[in-house]
Amino acid sequence: MDAKVTAGPAAKALLDDLFANGLLFPSGVDGLYGRSGTFEEVIERFEAAVSKLGDVDNAERIHFPPGMARATLEKSGYLKSFPQLAGCVHSFMGGEAEHAQLLAKITAGDDWSELQDATDVCLTPAACYPLYPTVAARGALPEEGKLFDLKSYCFRHEPSQDPARMQLFRMREYVRIGTPEQVQSFRRSWLERGQGLINSLGLPCHVDLANDPFFGRAGKMLANNQRDSGLKFELLIPITSEEKPTACLSFNYHQDHFGSLWKLQFADGTPAHSGCVGFGLERVAIALFKHHGPDPKRWPAAVRKVLWG
Known about the structure:
Amino acid--[acyl-carrier-protein] ligase, alpha+beta, BirA Bifunctional Protein, domain 2, globular, aa-tRNA-synth_II/BPL/LPL, EC 6.2.1.n2, ligase activity, seven-stranded mixed sheet, ligase, 309 residues
């Protein structure tokens, strides 16, 4: 059974409003929605604004699919830290007899999922996870490190009627791999650029220290350490709550976690550090519709100029 994430009345009201205005379409599963052409156009225009800021850095562009190797996810440590969010693709692998059982269960309205087995594919939880082994396989990093521009649909199992907390959503990321100084300089730059972009869209926001939703008692220690070390910042926009605004951009410093894990290193064997800035594309679009209304043609001229020129 799904462990639903509680959504307050304001979140449900916003979701109903997005449905009523034909911007999102229900699927029968909380957090899984169709998007209208207008919704997609806003995301496309926002992405173009992000690219305008990021293209000056000449990042290498790589887009991975929304599925990744299960072995890669296992090695990454994601299942240790966030088992509650992960999703694995299962498929039917039986023969004729098992197929007959499957059809009988469906006809009877019984649970047929036990007749499926896990495949070698997991759903991608963050756009950058498939990147690190890919780069490590190339060999030693150059002294100047590397910069990448990524985009992927991502999955996190947290069904909710909060439209800003989808189970399948798109993430745009810039990932810097290099020395600690190179990575921290990258993050400082994007903290400034990201906040400037959101301000230019007429959206209220602020940046704050944050932590990931680590699982269990040990996770509380990891979360505290993440905050105390200043490894994660989030840009927060009030969407369904003023008191608990929604994280729409994140600015993360992984230290040498992925460098050591994947033997991602410089020519002298020193593990590389990494960091990323992530843009939650659906969340920013929903913030724009929430604060400026359902019809982009009626948005403030200054906002339209940023997005449509």
